[in-house]
Automatic annotation (TrEMBL):
<keyword id="KW-0450">Lipoyl</keyword>
<feature type="domain" description="Lipoyl-binding">
    <location>
        <begin position="105"/>
        <end position="180"/>
    </location>
</feature>
<comment type="similarity">
    <text>Belongs to the 2-oxoacid dehydrogenase family.</text>
</comment>
<comment type="function">
    <text>E2 component of the 2-oxoglutarate dehydrogenase (OGDH) complex which catalyzes the second step in the conversion of 2-oxoglutarate to succinyl-CoA and CO(2).</text>
</comment>
<keyword id="KW-0816">Tricarboxylic acid cycle</keyword>
<dbReference type="GO" id="GO:0006099">
    <property type="term" value="P:tricarboxylic acid cycle"/>
</dbReference>
<feature type="compositionally biased region" description="Low complexity">
    <location>
        <begin position="185"/>
        <end position="201"/>
    </location>
</feature>
<dbReference type="InterPro" id="IPR001078">
    <property type="entry name" value="2-oxoacid_DH_actylTfrase"/>
</dbReference>
<dbReference type="GO" id="GO:0045252">
    <property type="term" value="C:oxoglutarate dehydrogenase complex"/>
</dbReference>
<dbReference type="InterPro" id="IPR023213">
    <property type="entry name" value="CAT-like_dom_sf"/>
</dbReference>
<dbReference type="InterPro" id="IPR050537">
    <property type="entry name" value="2-oxoacid_dehydrogenase"/>
</dbReference>
<feature type="region of interest" description="Disordered">
    <location>
        <begin position="246"/>
        <end position="268"/>
    </location>
</feature>
<dbReference type="InterPro" id="IPR036625">
    <property type="entry name" value="E3-bd_dom_sf"/>
</dbReference>
<dbReference type="InterPro" id="IPR011053">
    <property type="entry name" value="Single_hybrid_motif"/>
</dbReference>
<dbReference type="InterPro" id="IPR006255">
    <property type="entry name" value="SucB"/>
</dbReference>
<comment type="pathway">
    <text>Amino-acid degradation; L-lysine degradation via saccharopine pathway; glutaryl-CoA from L-lysine: step 6/6.</text>
</comment>
<dbReference type="Pfam" id="PF00364">
    <property type="entry name" value="Biotin_lipoyl"/>
</dbReference>
Amino acid sequence: MSVEVRVPTLGESVTEATVATWFKKPGDTVAVDEMLCELETDKVTVEVPSPAAGTFGEIIAAEGETVGVDALLATLNAGDSAGAAPAAAPAAEKSAPASDAAGSSVDVMVPTLGESVTEATVATWFKAVGDTVAQDEMLCELETDKVSVEVPAPAAGTLTEIIAAEGATVDATAKLGVISSGKGAAASAPAATSTPAATSGKDVENAPSANKLMAENGVDAGSITGTGKDGRIMKDDVLKAMSAPKAAPAPAAAPRAASAPADAAREERVKMTKLRQTIARRLKESQNTAAMLTTYNEVDMTEVMSLRNEYKDLFLKKHGVKLGFMSFFTKACIHALNEVPEVNAEIDGTDIVYKNYVNMGIAAGTPTGLVVPVIRDADGMSFADIEKAIAEKGARARDGKLSMAEMQGGTFTISNGGVYGSLMSSPILNPPQSGILGMHKIQDRPMAINGQVVIRPMMYLALSYDHRIVDGKGAVTFLVRVKEALEDPRRLLMDL
């Protein structure tokens, strides 16, 4: 019985992914839930498990192809593994359609560009006319107004003609080039080892997106430790290597007289990562959609710091995790959200959806950009549970191991710019949420207390909110309740 392997749900607002790695080939025996391939989105890497046990049949979406949600990736022959040998034969025949035909030509066509995308621009040709190519080797890259699309070779052979040159705009059905395949075409398959994977001293093929990124930025594959299957270098590995601190360059020669060409020579142009493009798009959408406003207050951190210092050693001994400030802020926000529920709501068309639970987003900085892992049902958690969840999610975020599900479903967000030294800022909403709290640096300042000037550890707080749902009164009340709970943490225990 034939079973289809399809693209799983990729998450909120994610409509497509790139096939990064196939772990199985036609004819292999697979077990149920065994990993078949890895997909890369602009946010995370998604593994695709086998839906059934049996024999791997045919790969429909090759490495490097861009696929939409629920797209067909491959087929399985479910049942007894004895059928492995027969199943492998037709799959192999399909994978090299022109290997027996002398001098046949295969057209290189524009792949599926995605919903509502009708044209693309040819950005880069990785191969020149006359080059030998292996099947599924990357030939060129197209750019649309939404994503970049890599075009793999449909067959092994020689690139004999480039029809759409770099810079040309092509429609969704256009021909890009021609490959001549035939006798000897199968022998050209080892040419794939000329990619950066070979220079790294390994016999595994790196992810096409990783090869492309290394080529664009002059990164040596030998200097990167791959985290993929069998040490395969993934795109995230390259991004992490590029973001790592580099040795200071040698002192530059005395500058020449200022001129446009001289300035250009000292500039560096780096293409935005998909994650950075998504961050930019979502933040701009937030500004364009929500009626965003920010209200400010300040909080005296004396009592929280005193309580923390008093119990931090006992807390660590009993719960195995350090007592930080984030659990206090999380608890204080949950307390305030219960009193001002519109801050914990969202707009859906002409409806307002009130959330009778709190899924707290905790913004975390990573080498590749800001992500917001979500602590689900935080309103039912203890201080220790919250601290453990924050530590675990933060570590996974820094290692790039967060799943899509871990970043979805948040109802409110806390962002701590204070860890970077920020004294005051206006956070941007994380759509479709209606509120985000900005924490800042704790700074000793002179304050008037009972007619006396005393030095107190103060922090500025900022609440950005969607004025379409939250009125000024509700926003100010929310922030005052957070302030009151932090300045007298016993209010949290007494639910006041």
